[in-house]
Amino acid sequence: MKHNLFFMKNILALVLVFASFALFGQSKPNIVILATGGTIAGAGASATGSEYTSGQVKIDAMIDAVPNIRDLANLKGEQLANVGSQDMNVKVWLDLANRINTLLAGKDVDGIVITHGTDTQEETAYFLNLTVKSDKPVVLTGSMRPSTALSAEGPLNLYNAVAVAASPLSKGYGVMVVMNDEIHSAKDVRKMITTPVQTFQSPQEGMIGTAIFGQVEFFHKPLGKHTTTSELSIDGVKSLPRVDIVYGCADMSGDLIDLMVKAGAKGIVIAGVGDGNMNAATLEAAKKAAGQGIWVVRASRVPIGKVLIKGEVDDKQFGTLCSDELNPQKARVLLMLAMLKKRNWDDMQRLFVEY
């Protein structure tokens, strides 16, 4: 019953908005699509083969290949980068965030869509969730199949992403990922499967809505601070501190942490076992690194769940931090941004709980 009432409120809001467009002669929303490459822009020699090259199709051609997409909004495409997302880097993140903030500060842009490879899409989405300073919609999309593949899903994903960015319902939801008819929040979304189209899921909090052939519906707001409520900033920032990730396993070697510190890491995330745990040798190396001023965060290699501040490890005692609900790759993103400002342990741990 509650779900039906929420759905009816969404429909009523859409009717009122489109009625106001007709009454006052307002034009369609203005959406900018920022392209970064990825599988959605990939091409291969065979429609049924697995081999392809990312970033072969430019953004204007991608837009033109989607029927009726211009009925949703006035569209402008920009080719900001052209890489497979395994090669995504901090420079592109900074370029993206700065460009989005510039575009959304103007009254002539109502939302942003970003085409992006799927391998690191969740990390880019989370980075933007912390650094974009607008409540206007920012939506990432991509595809698991290249543009030349049989049943390539990229065009429909792009169509639905534009629909979400253009929807008046999307304001204030932070950065979102739209794939496979689902809307996910940047904080919760994870790539869960290697190649199928249903790869993106939010296993703990669930998707926040759906976009089905352009029909947008939201179920709940995302948790955590983001965008306009985020205190993290990249104003004037040209680079981010180096943060490395070490993967936990049975009989792991503690000298991996020593090597990372020697190589110049300013922060280290442990993808620990279970509740962010590590063996005695690695815990000793983590304590040593923390004593040298290196921020060490305990996350978990387990796909779902919260890492406890006082589980088997008392983080304040050992000088480590716990990632709370963030997986290792997102904990790394938050730590890089948090380290741009000098913070004590309590302030740093607060960020992992609130964001």
List keywords for this structure.
4-stranded parallel beta sheet, globular, Rossmann fold, 14 strands, alpha/beta, 2 domains, 355 residues, 8-stranded mixed beta sheet
Can I get a quick summary?
The protein has 355 residues and is α/β, with parallel strands linked by helices.
The CATH superfamily of the largest domain is known as: L-asparaginase, N-terminal domain
In DSSP terms (H or I, runs of 4 or more residues), the helix count works out at 10
The share of residues in extended strands comes to 15-25%
**What CATH architecture of the largest domain do you see?**
3-Layer(aba) Sandwich
Give a structural overview.
The chain has ten helices and 14 strands. By secondary structure, it is α/β, with parallel strands linked by helices. The protein folds into two domains: 2-229, 3-Layer(aba) Sandwich (Rossmann fold); 243-354, Rossmann fold (3-Layer(aba) Sandwich), CATH 3.40.50.40. The strands form three sheets. Strands 2-1-3-4-5-6-9-10 form an eight-stranded mixed beta sheet, sandwiched between helices. A four-stranded parallel beta sheet has the order 11-12-13-14, with helices on both faces. A two-stranded antiparallel ribbon has the order 7-8. Helix 4 (121-131) runs parallel beside helix 9 and helix 6 (255-263) packs parallel to helix 7. The two termini are 32 Å apart.
